[in-house]
Amino acid sequence: MAGLLHLLFGLIIGFVGVIPPGLLNLTAAKISVKQNRKAAVIFALGASLIVVAQVYVGVFFSKLLNNNPDTLLLLEKFAVVAFLALSVFFFIRALLDSGTPVVKEVNRSPVKLFAQGIILSVLNIFPIPFYIGFSSFLASRGLFEFTYPMAHLFILGAASGTFLMLLAYITYVKKFAFDSNTFARKINYLLGGLTLFIAVFTIFRIYS
């Protein structure tokens, strides 16, 4: 049951983290429109592969915090800082985002598509602090274990969640016409509010 929860947490967090329109999901959508679904899936697989490493790094740094003497309090304070920073990031992004992210040109070769997914995902360093914050928050609530196989199931879930959201962009971009700028702003406000709520809730828990 604990393993399933770790997998589910990773899946949900990975899925939610790629909802806002950005370089990866919009490039995947463009490949789907300009070429075909198979080509876009190859790109998404390359991008999701790097997420495994990014989540691992995030969990590793979170584990370093967990090894300190004042584990629970330290994790909670770090989670507050991380979520406040994420909240500010999302709100600023929502206020300043006046255009669709630049979408890179795509190549037709499957190998090049896979490599391009890897490269663009490597350039996207935001997931690392994102997963540090969430794994620290879950660990401070006793919902996350850094041991094998729990942490590895979480990592697998996060990579799978990222791939599923990219797949959603690939699948539905042709079916639904939407204003990506308005959508991005609303989602960023929602994520900003969510991370702010978690930060305030954690502060209340620390000092109550």
Overview of this structure, please?
The protein has 208 residues and is an all-alpha fold. It is globular. It starts with a helix and ends with a helix.
Overview features:
208 residues; mainly alpha; 8 helices
Can you give the helix content as a percent range? over 70%
DSSP strand count: 0
Overall form: globular
Q: Main sheet? A: none
**Number of separate helices:** 8
Mean pLDDT: 81
Structural class computed from helices and strand pairing? mainly alpha
Portion in strands: under 5%
Uncertain residue ranges: none
How far is the N terminus from the C terminus? 31 Å
Using only C-alpha atoms, the radius of gyration works out to 18 Å
Write the element-wise H/E pattern from the N-terminal end onward.
Answer: HHHHHHHH
Question: In terms of topology, how is this protein built?
Answer:
Layout: H1 2-17, H2 23-34, H3 37-66, H4 71-96, H5 110-123, H6 127-140, H7 150-172, H8 180-207
Brief synopsis:
With 208 residues, the chain is mainly alpha-helical. The chain has helices spanning 2-17, 23-34, 37-66, 71-96, 110-123, 127-140, 150-172, 180-207. The protein is 78% helix and 0% strand.
